[in-house]
């Protein structure tokens, strides 16, 4: 008796952060380009449904967005666009107040979209909103793994800790990956991850059935070429592939495997 082969499913990574402005969408887009360079078929889903800005980062003007898919006006295939960098994107419409709350309809549509794209790609990146709203937490719950983006700023670290704590206690996450953006000096990101792990060990892990481990997967240096690329609405990986930050993104993709 021959067994039916199991269809390949994409690895789904939620890229999230405790606060806005830490470069989460920048990381999502450039990491997607780095995965594509490695020969993977990649989709980035703009899951920041109310305050979408992936289109701005990629300099795309979408005529069809997730809103049109959710409302049945267009198909998922029609809404999927090729992006610079060799990957695909599903963009959300910005300023859609109806998507700022997790209604049963939003919940159903999100899971339907994710389940539909899973067999079509090697990797799906969910560029979530910032913070711990129910929409963000539900989006993260659909992922196989979580990558938290933080910067060395104290407010970013406080909010990253809050996010990590909520994911550990409400979703049973016991392994969360972390990348430090805008690191001022080599090794700063690893130090920050160790600091956060120490706080988690002290205040979160004693209440869990098994300890939460943070995995430091890389740091992106503070680099003038990042600002230039963002202002030009170009991917760093395409505009300045030789820059220190672009090389760090390549290393991050390799580390994430």
UniProtKB/TrEMBL annotation:
Keywords noted in UniProt: ATP-binding, Nucleotide-binding
Write one Pfam family the protein is assigned to. AAA_31
Which SUPFAM superfamilies does the record cross-reference, listed alphabetically?
A: P-loop containing nucleoside triphosphate hydrolases
The record's listing under InterPro entries reads: AAA_dom, FlhG, MinD_FleN, P-loop_NTPase, ParA/MinD_ATPase
Q: In terms of domain of life, where is this protein from?
A: Bacteria
Domain AAA: start-end pairs? 11-167
User: What PANTHER family does this protein's entry cite?
Assistant: CELLULOSE BIOSYNTHESIS PROTEIN BCSQ-RELATED, SEPTUM SITE-DETERMINING PROTEIN MIND HOMOLOG, CHLOROPLASTIC-RELATED
**Protein name (record):** MinD/ParA family protein
């Amino acid at each position: 008796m021959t067994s039916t082969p199991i269809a390949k499913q994409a690895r789904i990574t939620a890229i999230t952060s405790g606060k806005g402005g830490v470069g989460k969408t920048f990381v999502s887009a450039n990491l997607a380009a780095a995965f594509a360079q490695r020969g993977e078929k990649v989709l980035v889903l703009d899951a920041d449904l109310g305050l979408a800005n992936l289109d701005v980062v990629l300099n795309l003007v979408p005529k069809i967005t997730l809103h049109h898919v959710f409302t049945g006006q267009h198909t998922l295939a029609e809404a999927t666009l090729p992006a610079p960098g060799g990957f695909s994107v599903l963009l959300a419409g910005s300023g859609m107040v109806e998507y700022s709350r997790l209604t049963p309809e939003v919940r159903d549509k999100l899971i339907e979209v994710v389940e539909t794209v899973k067999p079509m790609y090697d990797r799906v990146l969910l560029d979530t909103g910032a913070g711990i709203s129910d929409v963000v937490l539900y989006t993260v719950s659909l992922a196989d793994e979580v990558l938290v983006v933080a910067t060395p700023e104290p407010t970013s670290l406080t909010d990253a800790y809050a996010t990590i704590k909520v994911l550990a206690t409400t979703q049973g996450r016991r392994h969360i990956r972390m990348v430090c953006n805008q690191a001022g000096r080599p090794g700063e990101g690893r130090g920050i991850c160790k600091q956060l792990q120490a706080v988690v060990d002290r205040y979160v892990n004693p209440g869990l059935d098994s300890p939460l481990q943070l995995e430091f997967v890389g740091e992106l240096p503070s680099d003038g070429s990042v600002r230039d690329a963002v202002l030009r609405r170009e991917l760093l990986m395409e505009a300045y592939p030789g820059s220190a930050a672009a090389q760090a993104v390549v290393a991050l993709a390799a580390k994430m495997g």
